Amino acid sequence: MPAIKSSACGKFILTGEHAVVYGQPAIALPLSSRRISLLVEPQLRHPSGKIQIYFPALGLDSDLDSLPPGHPIVRAVWETINFLRLSEMPGCNLRFNSQLPVGSGLGSSAAMSVATIRGLTEFLGHPLPDTTVNLLAFETEKFVHTNPSGVDNTVITYEKPVFFQTGSQLAFLQPAVDLYFILADSGIQKSTGETVTELAERYKVDPSSIQAKLGAIGELSNKARSAMESGNLPGIADAINQNQDLLRELKLSCPELDHLVDVALQSGALAAKLTGGGRGGHILALVEPGRADAVLQALSAGGALNPFQTVVKGHADRHE
Fold this sequence. Notes:
The protein is an alpha+beta fold. It folds into 2 domains: 4-164, Ribosomal Protein S5, domain 2 (2-Layer Sandwich); 175-312, Alpha-Beta Plaits. The strands form 2 sheets. Strands 1, 2, 3, 4, 5, 6 and 7 form a 7-stranded mixed β-sheet that branches. Strands 9-10-8-11 form a 4-stranded antiparallel β-sheet. The chain is built from 9 helices and 11 strands.
């Protein structure tokens, strides 16, 4: 039984985070240049069923059974075992390497799940189609984020820009022009599950006001989709900026994120907003290619951690 390699990309949300949990559309983009990779190694000396996890970025060198039951790797392993109806698992090591920070809005938990499911199923001789990988990753996400929309596991599984709305047919997007983004880390870790739960509690208290804002965010996703498909950069930028205003009103931003958004805009970005669960994690900034270096330098000087550029290619080109 040979060693098997797998990997999964990160993601970032252009528009629609949180609103997507309430049935509104969202646009998610794959972050192919930042990945979680996995090497599955057979270990004939391990007792049957023993799986050892090595994940330096998380400080893990642990037996699977010693990890919390809700950990995304644990859940992904068990979803795989149960789906394949295995009576026992051959002993193996799972060695992870990550370019994605945890708790930063870039889809690290879904990437762990997708990489684990793909690696294990190929290791066991039962590679699965994307539709099944996506289904199992979504089941895993339910344990991690309580009430996920499914957008993270979907964009990461297919590694294509998606227009996602629960209950509607999945639509892959192809921008008409190259889109240049800067992503910058606030340095604050925040669980998406926590912010989703907090908003749900406030929704119970004031449903009409919050639903109106969520509906407005959904309309911005429709606007951004049309602008992407027609190559209308000002239209995309306007949707992003309005989305950030609404996320602030929903108390999903924080002073650190607001500061980085302001720095990006003041240094020449066309638009900027938080991406992901909020209250921490990353911002995205839409930039013209000639302004990218200036925005990167300003964000670094402004306290952002490890800002970097990524490009979503237009037409038939791939995301880099």
